C-alpha cells in the first residue's frame, strides 16, 4: 500500500512524502467489512471484495482497475443468443419507463417470390442503432 502526503514548504513550494506499507494478507485487512464473517477475496486491480474465489475470477475477467469501472459487455452471437429475455420477474418493481430506439438500415434489392403474385422487391438490413 502506498500512502502519499502533499506538503508545502516555507518558501511556498509543494512536495510530497511517500510511505510504502507491505500488507502480508490483504484479504484479512477487509475481514470486518461486512457482518458476514467468512473469508473474503480481494481484487488486486480495483480492491473490491468478493465472497468466493469463483466470483472473484469471474470479476477479474472484466476488471480494468481503478481508472475505469468494470463493465461487462457481451455482444450477441448469431444463432446462440439472438434474443434476450428477462426471467427474474420476482425482482421487478413497478416503474414505468420509455425506451426510444433508432435503427438505421440499408435498402437492398432482392427478387424473392412468396407464391402467387407476391414478390419481395426490397430488403432492409440494419447497420447501426442508438437507444435512450
From TrEMBL:
The keyword Zinc-finger applies. GO terms for molecular function: zinc ion binding. The keyword Flavoprotein does not apply. Residues 41-70 form the C2H2-type domain. It comes from the Eukaryota. InterPro entries: Znf_C2H2_type. Keywords: Metal-binding, Zinc, Zinc-finger. This is C2H2-type domain-containing protein. It comes from Rhizophagus irregularis.
